[in-house]
């Protein structure tokens, strides 16, 4: 029997997820513009794999397929995987990553709403540990035409080293480390000078700064739609700016500028789309601030001192572990129990 | 006139649907064939019945007397004949029955003697007793006996008296219509309450979607020439009419769960309650009727002045229910309760009968798992984390749920309203709360039983000890006696004692046998009961009474009321 | 590779140490075991467990002399709680000790009672009032439903009545989790 309330707002998981997908569109458009349509192929592969994996798991677990396949949550995971994996990753890499995310990280933990880790980021971490080379090769903007991309994805062409390089983040880190070495040619050059190369744009990596802008636009729209709150993006960007700004302020020759950090890699995607995943993220307002700030600092540390191309994924997972305790410790005072 | 208003966290804006029932003025209701007046209509103790089947009652005659420290009287809503005092289905989701007085109106609607009081010259204690016996309770839906709230705090006076005319639930308009049509009399009731509470200021909070009500109340205040009373339009946002939320909006004070608002210098009453206080004090009329909105799936939604005890279907028929009607909801769509039957009576808590159908209030889409989106937390006016409460309630982890302030939840339904996963969150909280209460009751009973058991053991120990001591003393005495008597009479004392020992037992057994024999005879005699000489009419009556006795003896054993309910 | 190994081992060690520390620091003191067991038992004092009351049974459990599944009034839930408390395996209620019944109270048929006072002596919680040769009656609110007064009564005038549900004891049901496919189908049909 149904009890009150007898009226409900027209809201559903599906519509929430749909809006998240829509918000990704500007970023994807920029991606296609600068790096070619290969990314669309990746998105399609990931989406298909996610749906297949989800359907299989739902069948095994005896859950109704109709509502869970159409809730679009698997598609969101798939898109995030496609957008964080290299656009020229071979198809099986994307498929394996997506299946890991959906089957292991999501469904084996209990399905929608039960996963303690962000599925896309968990998959990213697993894959980068397993296939460090394949996961680190990124083409420069406009470097590859669609045909070559297809060949790379579907295995026709396999001399990746020849045609691709590292991400701007990786490149800059390598350059900075070289600059710190007195024997190197570039010794003594500052980060700004190092960024003069063809791989870099105005603020971050060439082209990728526009993608970041696309994510920013989509993310702001999500805030305006009240799908996400301002806390996580704000705290993430703020903390990243502050951390990077401190080190950069002390030694501008050895560290990249805060704006570069914000504009490159997955910073914007992370701030608006990855860390804001409600299931694995913190939920209280103060908790969100802590959670995102922690993720930002970790991201910076991993980017600057670690060996991986970007730090978002590891930072997200590490903070996911802390979510229960963050939430527990940051419960807001309830009505009538506030001290004011 | 710009007053600083405060905000409460959360809230939602459901479609208000209030226009439909405010087009026509308040209407009267023809007398029904039968009034079913439950004795227990308010928070607190069950009133005891004061009438018997066959009694004639006047309109306004007390039929249920307040019992216990918190209880409120009940009155006959019209003159007529008491047909029965029997359990009848009450307007409650459970569908359980409660002892009710069933009155057959005689059509004359004759008032009994009415005594009024002058509240200015009567001591407050007497006034409170008067209001208790007039059956005045909160008409906003909580039905808390009003007299118990009409005590000023420790200092003997109150800062702010808040009058609740917010009426935030969709569809309900009875308070709106009351303020529009009876603002002057309502104000008199407010003045009486102000006097009793010695309140410095009075704030009447009305949601700003009721401009006519605001204007009417303001006009009444101006006409009365009183100062320190203000009708304040507050932003329309559900649940602004929750007492705690309204106090917050008007005064900025948050009254925590479990604390009395007078400790914070405020007290809150519904406008309907103010009106019934006016009726009780100035006209001497106890609470026997109230305004009820009939809305929803009817052709002519409207407000009616309804006698307590009127069957709901009698009332709804006047508004023209549509053919697909399949349920009545008492209250609004956010917090209302589904009625177990159509003919349950209107009670003091009935502010609205929302007539519903599957098309009007469709079942929600299937429940999905919680995605922790936090929508519910954003909407919760009690600043709770509903999804955490849900999680703990679902896993029956009640201790944790209480730690997350389950009992601060006011069951407003905002969280269920917004949840994209369509989880019936409030149902989980209701479940948890009643489960926790049940466990507390069980625990109390167990503790009491343990104490009594230990006491009994202790008592038996003591008795044994005392007996042993007595025996020892006796034995010692005998020994002394024997020693004193020397060898003159050695054995007889002890000899006589030994065979005499079983004697009491045997005697007792004989006694029991005799008593049993007597009982058997009594039973045999009881069966015929000399009824064969009686006329069939009288026999039928006896059978009838016996049957009724059966029912009274085990009320809930019969889920449905007897044939005449 | 080795770094990863070291890190993992390190984390494991730190967490382990933390847990160990917490278990020492937050160790629950007080309440001896018997009290805790007794707190779980329903205090019906019926003796069905084979002991003269709940506390003796609690003592026996604590002393390892009795199984945890001998108390019918406590039922499955009680056994579960005991199993949780003692870290033992759950077992179904042992049949030789009785079956779980709805909670009841005893009622004396006052017309038949001969006032022999035998039931008063049997009642473990003094819930029966009366004097010799007078009608006896049971204080329902104190009666634990132990049924111990039934057998001694020479005229069999005591019966057990299940406690009826009232609004004050009525409980909201656990919401049905509609996600099961069957429920879904009915929901669709209704819609
Ligand atoms: S609104 Fe529903 S889905 Fe969202 S957090 Fe609350 S309970 Fe979970
Ligand atoms: S029903 Fe309770 S938890 Fe839900 S919004 Fe209202 S007060 Fe908050
Ligand atoms: S069986 Fe009876 S006496 Fe034994 S523990 Fe259970 S309630 Fe107590
Ligand atoms: S044992 Fe039976 S007859 Fe004796 S006092 Fe009790 S109820 Fe009455």
Report what the structure shows:
- Chain A is an all-alpha fold and 340 residues long.
- Chain A contains 16 helices and no strands.
- In chain A, helix 5 crosses helix 6 and helix 6 packs across helix 16 (312-329).
- The mean pLDDT of chain A is 85.
- Chain B is of the alpha/beta class.
- Chain B folds into two domains: 19-330, 3-Layer(aba) Sandwich (Rossmann fold); 373-489 and 498-525, no CATH class.
- Chain B is built from 15 helices and 17 strands.
- Chain B has helices at residues 124-133, 146-149, 174-197, 211-224, 243-251, 271-283, 312-319, 375-379, 386-394, 398-403, 414-418, 425-485, 492-500, 502-526, 536-553; strands at residues 27-28, 35-38, 48-49, 56-57, 62-65, 74-75, 80-89, 97-105, 158-164, 199-207, 229-234, 266-270, 289-296, 302-307, 327-330, 337-338, 352-356.
- The radius of gyration of chain B is 31 Å and the shape is globular.
- Chain C has 191 residues and is mainly alpha-helical.
- Chain C contains six helices and four strands.
- In chain C, the strands form two sheets. A two-stranded antiparallel ribbon of chain C has the order 1-4. In chain C, strands 2-3 form a two-stranded antiparallel sheet.
- Chain C starts with a helix and ends with a helix.
- Classes of the chains: A mainly alpha (340), B alpha/beta (565), C mainly alpha (191).
- The interface between A and C is small, with 4 and 3 residues.
- One iron/sulfur cluster (SF4) binds next to helix 5 of chain C.
């Amino acid at each position: 029997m149904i009890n009150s309330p007898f009226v409900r707002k027209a809201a559903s998981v599906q519509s929430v997820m749909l809006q998240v997908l829509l918000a990704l569109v500007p970023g994807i458009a920029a991606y296609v513009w600068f790096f070619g349509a290969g990314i669309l192929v990746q998105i399609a592969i990931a989406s298909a794999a996610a749906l297949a994996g989800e359907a299989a798991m739902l069948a095994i677990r005896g859950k109704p397929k109709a509502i869970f396949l159409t809730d679009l949550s698997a598609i969101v995971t798939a898109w995030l995987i496609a957008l964080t994996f290299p656009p020229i990753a071979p198809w099986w890499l994307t498929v394996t990553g997506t299946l890991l995310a959906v089957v292991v990280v999501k469904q084996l933990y209990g399905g929608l709403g039960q996963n303690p880790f962000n599925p896309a980021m968990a998959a990213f971490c697993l894959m980068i540990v397993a296939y460090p080379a394949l996961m680190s090769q990124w083409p420069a903007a406009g470097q590859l035409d669609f045909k070559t991309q297809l060949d790379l994805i579907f295995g026709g062409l396999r001399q990746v080293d020849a045609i691709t390089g590292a991400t701007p983040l990786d490149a800059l880190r390598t350059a900075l480390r070289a600059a710190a070495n007195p024997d190197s040619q570039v010794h003594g050059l500052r980060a700004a000078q190092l960024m003069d190369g063809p791989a870099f744009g105005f603020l971050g990596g060439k082209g990728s700064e526009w993608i970041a802008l696309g994510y920013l636009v989509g993310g702001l729209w999500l805030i305006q739609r009240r799908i996400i709150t301002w806390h996580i993006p704000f705290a993430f960007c703020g903390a990243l700016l502050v951390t990077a700004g401190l080190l950069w302020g002390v030694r501008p020759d050895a560290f990249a500028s805060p704006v570069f950090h914000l504009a490159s890699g997955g910073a914007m995607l992370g701030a608006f789309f990855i860390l804001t995943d409600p299931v694995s993220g913190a939920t209280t307002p103060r908790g969100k601030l802590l959670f995102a700030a922690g993720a930002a600092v970790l991201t910076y540390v991993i980017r600057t001192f670690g060996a991986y191309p970007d730090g978002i994924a590891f930072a997200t997972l590490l903070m996911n572990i802390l979510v229960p305790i963050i939430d527990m410790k940051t419960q807001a005072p309830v009505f009538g129990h506030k001290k004011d | 006139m710009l007053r600083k208003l405060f905000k409460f966290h959360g809230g939602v804006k459901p479609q208000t649907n209030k226009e439909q029932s405010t087009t026509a003025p308040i209407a009267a209701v023809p007398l029904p064939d039968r009034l079913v007046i439950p004795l227990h209509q308010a928070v607190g103790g069950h009133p005891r019945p004061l009438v018997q089947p066959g009694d004639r009652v006047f309109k306004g005659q007390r039929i249920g007397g307040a019992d216990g420290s918190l209880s409120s009287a009940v009155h006959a809503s019209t003159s007529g004949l008491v047909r029965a005092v029997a359990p009848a289905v009450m307007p409650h989701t459970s569908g359980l029955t409660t002892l009710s007085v069933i009155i057959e109106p005689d059509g004359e609607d004759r008032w009994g003697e009415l005594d009024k009081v002058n509240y200015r010259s009567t001591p407050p204690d007497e006034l409170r007793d008067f209001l208790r016996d007039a059956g005045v309770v909160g008409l906003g839906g909580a039905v808390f006996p009003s007299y118990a709230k009409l005590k000023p705090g420790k200092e003997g006076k109150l800062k702010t008296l808040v009058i609740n005319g917010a009426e935030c639930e969709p569809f309900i308009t009875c308070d709106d219509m009351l303020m529009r049509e009876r603002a002057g009399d309502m104000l008199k009731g407010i003045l009486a309450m102000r006097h009793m509470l010695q309140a410095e200021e009075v704030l009447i909070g009305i949601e700003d979607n009721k401009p006519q009500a605001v204007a009417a109340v303001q006009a009444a205040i101006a006409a009365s020439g009183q100062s320190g009373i203000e009708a304040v339009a507050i932003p329309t946002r559900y649940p602004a009419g929750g007492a705690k939320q309204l106090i917050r909006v008007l005064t900025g004070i948050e009254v925590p769960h479990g604390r009395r608002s007078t400790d914070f210098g405020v007290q809150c009453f519904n406008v309907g309650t103010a009106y019934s206080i006016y009726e009780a004090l100035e006209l001497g009329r106890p609470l026997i009727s109230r305004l009820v909105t009939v809305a929803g799936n009817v052709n002519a939604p409207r407000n009616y002045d309804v006698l307590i005890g009127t069957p709901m279907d009698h009332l709804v028929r006047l508004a023209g229910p549509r053919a697909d009607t399949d349920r009545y909801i008492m209250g609004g769509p956010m917090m209302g309760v589904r009625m177990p039957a159509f003919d349950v009576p209107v009670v003091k808590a009935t502010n609205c009968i929302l007539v519903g159908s599957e098309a009007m209030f469709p079942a929600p889409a299937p429940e999905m798992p919680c995605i922790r989106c936090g929508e519910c937390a954003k909407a919760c006016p009690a600043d709770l984390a509903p999804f955490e409460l849900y999680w703990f309630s679902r896993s029956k982890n009640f201790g944790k749920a209480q730690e997350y302030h389950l009992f601060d939840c006011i069951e407003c339904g905002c969280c269920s309203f917004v949840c994209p996963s369509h989880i019936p969150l409030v149902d989980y909280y209701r479940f948890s709360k009643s489960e926790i209460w049940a466990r507390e009751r069980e625990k109390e009973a167990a503790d009491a039983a343990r104490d009594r058991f230990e006491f009994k053991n202790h008592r038996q120990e003591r008795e044994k000890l005392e007996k042993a001591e007595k025996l020892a003393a006796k034995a010692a005495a005998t020994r002394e006696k024997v020693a004193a008597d020397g060898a003159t009479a050695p054995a007889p004392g002890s000899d006589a004692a030994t065979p005499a020992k079983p004697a009491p037992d045997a005697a007792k057994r004989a006694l029991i046998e005799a008593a049993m024999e007597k009982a058997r005879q009594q039973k045999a005699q009881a069966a015929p009961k000399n009824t064969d000489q009686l006329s069939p009419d009288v026999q039928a009556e006896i059978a009838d009474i016996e049957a009724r006795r059966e029912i009274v003896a085990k009320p809930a054993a019969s889920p449905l009321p007897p044939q005449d309910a | 590779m080795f770094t990863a190994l070291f890190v993992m081992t390190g984390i494991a060690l730190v967490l382990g140490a933390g847990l160990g520390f917490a278990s020492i620091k937050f160790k629950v003191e007080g309440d001896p075991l018997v009290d805790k067991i007794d707190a779980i038992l329903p205090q019906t004092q019926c003796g069905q467990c084979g002991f003269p009351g709940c506390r003796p049974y609690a003592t026996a459990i604590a002393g390892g002399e009795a199984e945890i599944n001998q108390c019918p009034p406590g039922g499955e839930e009680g056994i579960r709680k005991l199993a949780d408390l003692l870290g033992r395996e759950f077992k179904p209620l042992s049949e030789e000790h009785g079956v779980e019944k709805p909670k009841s109270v005893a009622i004396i048929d006052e017309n038949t009672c001969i006032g022999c006072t035998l039931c008063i002596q049997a009642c473990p919680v003094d819930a029966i009032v009366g004097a010799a040769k007078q009608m006896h009656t049971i204080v329902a609110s104190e009666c634990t439903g132990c049924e111990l007064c039934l057998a001694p009564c020479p005229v069999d005038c005591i019966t057990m009545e299940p406690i009826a549900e009232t609004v004050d004891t009525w409980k909201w049901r656990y919401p049905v989790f509609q996600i099961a496919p069957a429920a879904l189908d009915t929901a669709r049909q209704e819609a």
